[in-house]
Amino acid sequence: MTADGDRVPLRERTAEELLALVRAGGASTRQELVNSTRMARSTVNQAVARLIREGRITESDRAPKGPGSGSGRPAVRLVAVVDASAVAGIDFGHSHVQVAVADEQGAFLGHRIARLDVDAHAPAALDLAATMLDGLVRTTGVTLGSVVAGVPGPLDARTGAVTSPTILSSWVGLHPGAELTRRLALPVRVENDAVLGAYGEARHGAGAGRGRADFLYVKASHGIGAGLVVGGRLYTGATGIAGEIGHIGLPGRPESCRCGKRGCLEAVVSVEAVRARVALVDPSRGVADVLLDRRGGPVVERVAHEAGRTLGTVLAQLCDLLNPGALVLGGELATVPGFVDGVRAAVERDAQPAIAATVEVRAAALGDRAELHGALELAAASSPARADGDAPH
């Protein structure tokens, strides 16, 4: 899971590509690998031989040849060897729980997601995550070596407890790490979800965050949060809750926020706020799935652009303070047409010109799975064999 994938030797990238095809079921013989990749047979044979030597794939029963395929010997099937020290990631959103299991290279072995009002049902969300992960472990046959989870609210790094009595109402005072450890019988590390999103983009993304020493990751979904990378390392603040930008007040805005105040950024710019605005502008449109199907349309794009400009006005001030090399936008809203353009327009308009000219504004390369990828990356980096000192403290 290197953050420097473009420097990996070609032979290693070739082997990883073939391994991914075998693991995903896209090919199970050498000939199928040749057909799928259009690589030379000698290249495929060399890469397969290397993977077999490394114990990452094995040869199984000979695959039966199809009708009309000739009378030659049946082809040998290739089977990916499941790593015994897999890692798991858990992503608690405000309205979903998703879990994934990956091998030591970061390749997904299994993924599940379920919808739930996570804010109001902490015990149910924790139980659901444990149940889904247990099911994935049984399905994939792995033995977990490390687990990392992300929560969408302030988490005190000194105690491991959720600290806000309003943002995650049913979680306040809970220690998610301890709760998950008890349910899974495994040590579980917990971080803020936006911090994990930043970590995922820094380590595994292919966009603006990867390779950057200084960038700001912003998750725009049912809430608004940020993760800050400074000097190539995550900055989480004195008590671990840096990046809680969702409750910055917008002057003159009357919208009520779940934190008890009015005019908070996430009360104005969130999935719910955008959906409500679309319904107001175009009452004839069904908006329940308007952000999930990504189809957009003129009304959605206009409303999303406006929401992006509102967020961008705040981010422009943060850019003046922090001078990041990039603003990386994740979460559901970042996938809606018009939103990222709106953020970019506001930053270009409102940030100090010398800063606006140098900051890159773009959507997260990992999309709305950045947090889950970050959890998996951190789980691998936190294992004794892979600890590299780059993880947040």
UniProtKB/TrEMBL annotation:
Ranges of biased composition (kind: Basic and acidic residues): 55-64
Alphabetically ordered keywords of this record: Kinase, Transferase
Region (Disordered): 55-74
InterPro entries associated with the record: ATPase_NBD, ROK, WH-like_DNA-bd_sf, WH_DNA-bd_sf
SUPFAM superfamilies per UniProt: Actin-like ATPase domain (SSF53067), Winged helix' DNA-binding domain (SSF46785)
Gene Ontology MF annotations: kinase activity
Coiled coil start-end: none
PANTHER family: GLUCOKINASE, ROK (REPRESSOR, ORF, KINASE) FAMILY
Similarity-based family: Belongs to the ROK (NagC/XylR) family.
Protein name: NBD/HSP70 family sugar kinase
Origin species: Curtobacterium salicis
Lineage: Bacteria, Bacillati, Actinomycetota, Actinomycetes, Micrococcales
